[in-house]
Amino acid sequence: MTPRFATDVITFYHPDFWGLDSDDAVRDRALADPVAFWERVMDAMAESGVTGLELTFAPGDIGSVLRAFGSASAFRRELTSRGLSLVSTFIADSDAPSWQDAGSLPAIVADAERRAAFLAEAGADLLVAGLPMRRTFGTRPPLFVDAAYMNRMAGVAHAVGEAVARHGVRLALHTESNSTLWYERDIDLFMALTDPQYVWLCPDSCHIALGGGDPVAVARRHAPRIALAHWKDAVGPIDTHLTIDETVYARQQPYMTELGQGIVDWPGWAAAMSRTPGAGTVLVELDMAPDPVTALRAGTAVARASLDRAA
User: Fold this and answer.
1) What are the tens digits of pLDDT across the range 234-278?
2) Of 13, 52, 101, 154, which sits most exposed with the smallest number of CB within 10 A?
3) Is residue 193 packed enough to be buried (19+ CB in 10 Å), middle (13-18) or exposed (0-12)?
């Protein structure tokens, strides 16, 4: 089976791609003219040969799509006219009620149902979320990622997974750096505590490697529950004691690189991915590429070669 190649819309966020000088300028441009923003993104996708898309935080979020096209079905028609399709949408921490707040469960579920309804109308069936971030090491009171904590997170995931399943959408949890679903042990514990009928996994090869883990081993252990994966490379493990605040994502960037230029075992990863329910989609993630068309072509070439070796 030849997979569909996809990417996250964050691939197109680099100011150089827009001829602008800052991230804020990109967001302002997209807000001022969302139609032009999406037309450029979709045209670049078509040029690169990548046909699937994951939405994420602004400016490439659900709100931007609705401002540009009015509805999920209209967006679907725009994508289809270019040979493209929506794969998933990612829930960012800053864009949704926190899973840390026990009293927020009704709001969390309502938010997920809204996104799931959009996905179903747009022709997609995956809602990707992450667990809350860790606290900076040494902070008091500390946040212990223990069995009690993971049981609470499993309860939230079950409620969300059941709610979105009513829309024909699956919930998949992403292994974000510095989050409480980062280390191999975190992933194993959370997956053991959740129902495989309602909670799926979206492993990110880069983020697992940044935490000192083995992405291929994780993929092999949890292959039956992998609905989607983010194919991204890492230059090496990151400092696990980074200050965790609003700047942590920017400080992770130097540790991320294009496929084939880092430490991820791509043939091993491809072999493991070929045995998962998500094998039909290869999502090449390239955070903020200055030249996304060239980077996506190079990334998909590495992925294709790895899949061919694994076949």
Assistant:
1) 999 998 788 888 888 888 888 899 999 999 999 999 999 999 999
2) 101
3) middle
Q: What's the burial of 253, exposed, middle or buried (CB within 10 Å: 0-12/13-18/19+)?
A: exposed
Helix (H) or strand (E) holding 90: strand 85-90
Burial 233-252 (b: 16+ CB within 10 A, else e): bbeeebeeebebeeebeebb
Question: In the block, which residue shows the tokens 């964050």?
Answer: 10
Share of the chain above pLDDT 70, in %: 100
Strand partners, 204: 230
Distance CA 195, CA 3 (A): 27
Specify the pTM: 0.96
Residues 6 or more apart whose Cβ sits within 8 Å of residue 239: none
Write the secondary structure of 101-126 as one string of H (helix), E (strand) and C (coil).
CHHHHHHHHHHHHHHHHHHHHHCCCE
Among 4, 142, 197, 24, smallest CA distance to 85 is for 4
Can you say how many angstroms the Cα of residue 50 is from the centroid of all Cα atoms in its chain?
16
